[in-house]
Amino acid sequence: DTGVSQDPRHKITKRGQNVTFRCDPISEHNRLYWYRQTLGQGPEFLTYFQNEAQLEKSRLLSDRFSAERPKGSFSTLEIQRTEQGDSAMYLCASSLVGGMHSPLHFGNGTRLTVT
Amino acid sequence: SQQGEEDPQALSIQEGENATMNCSYKTSINNLQWYRQNSGRGLVHLILIRSNEREKHSGRLRVTLDTSKKSSSLLITASRAADTASYFCATDAKGAQKLVFGQGTRLTINP
Predict the structure, then answer these.
(1) Residue of chain A minimizing CA distance to B30
(2) What percent of chain B shows pLDDT beyond 90?
(3) How far is A67 from chain B (nearest CA, A)?
(4) For residues A35 and A29, what is the distance between their CA atoms, to the nearest angstrom?
């Protein structure tokens, strides 16, 4: 059973560097979400795609953050000029469209540490 | 900001006891979902209850929903050590296309 996979699992970077994360959703899922989670908190919505279209972005997503989903398959989340406040777990999830009655399937996340 | 608020923030019980977690939310919803998260892992969907449902069961899980009070509860019966995890409620507000998660309840089952 191929679930949602995220790469890398851990990333340590110095402040000011750029980082890119990848998410491979479940193949038949056409919705893909990115969330950010800090220690002791629930996941916070960042953005979502339906196929290749990015349909909503949170105000949390500053101009240093960009997400893409070329061809409606895998997605990348890039953070430019990282700051210590960007340290968090970045979670990707996928679901079927029409699927606010469908659950989200989460990957195991990418833990980012900015030093 | 989080829409759902879970209560309590942390809960520690003995194996075999029942665990009850509560969730409150602010806006009208289409459905409410509960998720579990083991340390360092992603979230796993447990159960979904629609706004026109009042109670739902799945194995040892029982979820209730009171839309007039904008609240839900998750009951885990006959708890096991493997139930140790954080539990989150999540809602999709009417007209929204995303789930909004609460802060979670950290559940510890002591053997």
Answers:
(1) A100
(2) 81
(3) 16
(4) 17
**A91 vs B42: CB contact, 8 Å cut-off?**
yes
Residue B2, both tokens = 């989080």
Give percent above pLDDT 70 in chain B.
96
**Rg of the Cα atoms in chain B:** 13
Instruction: Detail the DSSP E strand segments found in A2-87.
Output: 5-7, 10-13, 19-24, 31-37, 44-50, 53-57, 65-68, 75-79
What pLDDT, in 10s, does the model give residues A1-15?
579 999 999 999 999
Tokens of B33: 């979902």
Given an 8 Å threshold on Cβ–Cβ distance, is B102 in contact with A109? Answer: no
Tokens of B47: 């159960």
Torsion on CA atoms B106, B108, B109, B111, rounded to nearest 10: 170
- Which residues in A lie closer than 8 A to residue B95 (C-beta atoms)? none
Partners of B92 on chain A (C-beta within 8 Å) are 100
Convert the pLDDT of each residue in B8-18 to its tens digit: 999 999 999 99
Whether residue A100 has pLDDT greater than 90: no
Of A99, A4, A19, give the one whose Cα is nearest residue A67: A19
